[in-house]
Amino acid sequence: MSSGHTLDSTFGAMYIGAMFTMCLYGITTLQTYLYYLYYPKDDVSLKLLVTSLWVFDTVHVAFMSHTMYWYLVTGFGDVENLQNGVWSLFASMLMNVILAFIVQCFFTKRIYFLCPPKVKWWLPSCTGFIVLAHFCFGLETVGEFFQKKAFVKLQEAKWDAALPFAVAAILSDVVIAAALCTLLNNNRTEYKATNNLINRLILLAINRCVLTSAIAIVEVIVYAVRPNSSYFLAIDFLIGKLYANSLLASLNSRESLRGRGMQENETTEASTSFRMASTPIDPEIRFAESATNVRALDPESGCSQSRTENAEK
Hints:
The chain has eleven helices and no strands. With about 325 residues, it is mostly helical. The longest helix has about 35 residues.
C-alpha cells in the first residue's frame, strides 16, 4: 500500500469516484427540490417515492463519506486496515442496490399501465422477474463482500455473485427500455403533436437505458480485468445516483413535455383555422384535428388517453 501506483489504483480511484458522486448528489437534491416546487398536486404515494429516493441517496453519501474518512484519515498509514473493506463501503453498495430496485420497479409499474390487455400480465411479470433477479444478485454480492472483507478476496465472488449481478443489471435496463419504447410506439395516432411527444418519451427511455447500462458494463469489465483495484468500487459509487436522477428527470420532464405539446397543438389549430377559412371542411373533422390531448402522455398516466382518442375517431 505504500507505493504511489498502488495508492492511485485503490484509494486514489475511490477518492475521484467520491468527488463525482458528490456532484451527482447535488443534482439529485436539486431535482428533488424542483419536483416538490413544480408538482405539489401529485399523489402522496409519488411524493413518498421521491422522498425515499432522496433519503436512500443521502444515506449512501453518508456511508461513502465515512468510507473515505476511514481510509484517508483514521486508517492512514495502517497497512492492515487499508487491506480490508470497511463496513460502510459495503453498506454504500447496498444502498445502490436498493435505489436501483426502487427505480426499476417504478418503470415496471409504468410498463404495466401501458400494456394492452393481451400482454397486461406476462410482459410486466417477465420484466419484474428480471428486476427481482437483479435485486437478489445484488444482495448476494453485498453479502459475500461483507463476509470476505479483504480486498484481495473480493475477486472470489466474481462468478457466483458479482458477474450475474452485473449481467442482471444490464439485462433489466435493456428489457425495461425495450418494453417502454415498444408500448409507446404502439400508441401512435394520426396527430402530429401526440406522436412528437411519444418520440421524446422514447428518446428519454433509450437515454436512461444507455447511461445506466454503459456504467454497469464499464464496472463489470473493470472488475473482471482489475479485481484487486478499487476502480470498480469508484464506479459503483456513481451508479445509484444515475438511477435516482433518471427517475427524477422522468418526473420533472412532464411539464416541459406538456408545454411543448401545447405549443404544437396551438400551431396545428392555427393551421387548421387558416384552412377552414379558405376551404369548407366537415365540422367533425375540424373538431378531431384540434382535439389532441397532450396530457395523455403524462408519464404517470401512460398513453391510455391516446387509445381513447383512437376510439372516439
